[in-house]
Specification:
Layout lengths: L1 E10 L7 H15 L3 E3 L23 H10 L2 E8 L3 E8 L2 E7 L7 H4 L7 E4 L2 E7 L6 H8 L5 E6 L8 H13 L2 E6 L16 E3 L5 E4 L6 E10 L2
Parallel strand pairs: 1-2, 2-3, 7-8, 8-9
Antiparallel strand pairs: 1-12, 3-4, 4-5, 6-7, 9-10, 10-11
Organism: Salinispora tropica (strain ATCC BAA-916 / DSM 44818 / JCM 13857 / NBRC 105044 / CNB-440)
Keywords: Acyltransferase, Lipoprotein, Transferase
GO molecular function, one term: acyltransferase activity
Length: 233
């Protein structure tokens, strides 16, 4: 018997610090994605603004995303600063939100502002998804420790400059080659903080063989989607 999971990577436009406006854009992306899991870039709710206030899971501004997930049956993996403070991933479904992950490998000024987390896996309909944020994907130890927890796929949100457009693809292919798991990466599109006047976009999904199976373009608001399959007994 074959089991399927639809997954999308989204790169919505972002207004710096404006969680309410950005949450509305996330809701649009969730509805457009038509997928069970929708992955968003690093700090997609605030922009890569390291002084942005943490977004708590019970923040009322998340309501549009919760509503979109309730309508579609999706689980959204949203990038945001979270209490700790940490650079985190908020998992959002039709019932609400929770902190699913905290970035492990901080770098630069992040180290002085945020608390790191630990490798983490979430379960979606029996599929085990290992989570990552940006720099994590460039540290082979992170993927190795996450894979050791038992995963079907490695899911990340990133911010890369436009001249780093090939970085997340190279890392995704390495993770697939080293560990035999599929990889989904949502990459920021459009300007954001931290000196990222132009970002890469080109969010993508790679098979366990390292083949690119779906890719967005460079513009904000694009979504790429794929359906993953596995044999089950």
């Amino acid at each position: 018997m074959e089991q399927r999971l639809s997954i999308a990577v989204a790169q919505p436009r972002c207004v710096a610090y404006d969680v309410a406006v950005n949450a509305a854009a996330h809701a649009v992306a969730v509805r457009a994605a038509d997928a069970r899991v929708v992955v968003f870039p690093e700090m997609s709710l605030t922009g890569y603004e390291l002084d942005a206030l943490p977004v708590a899971p019970d923040d009322e501004r998340l309501a549009p995303i919760v509503a979109a997930c309730a309508e579609t049956g999706a689980l959204a993996l949203v990038g945001a600063p979270v209490p700790g403070p940490s650079i985190g991933v908020l998992a959002v479904d039709g019932d609400g939100a929770w902190v699913a992950y905290r970035k492990v490998h901080l770098h630069g000024v992040e180290i002085d502002r945020f608390v790191p987390g630990e490798p983490t896996v979430i379960d979606v309909d029996g599929w085990r998804l290992g989570l990552a944020v940006c720099r994590d994907t460039g540290v082979p130890e992170h993927a190795a420790k996450t894979v050791a927890l038992g995963i079907d796929g490695y899911v990340a949100g990133v911010v890369h400059a436009d001249d780093e457009v090939d970085v997340h693809g190279e890392r995704a292919r390495r993770v697939a080659a080293d560990h035999g798991v599929w990889v989904a990466v949502a990459a920021f599109a459009g300007p954001t903080g931290g000196g990222f006047a132009r970002t890469s976009g080109r969010s993508g999904i790679w098979s366990a063989a390292g083949e690119l199976v779906a890719e967005a373009g460079v513009a904000p608001d694009e979504v790429a989607r794929a359906t993953l399959a596995r044999s089950v007994r």
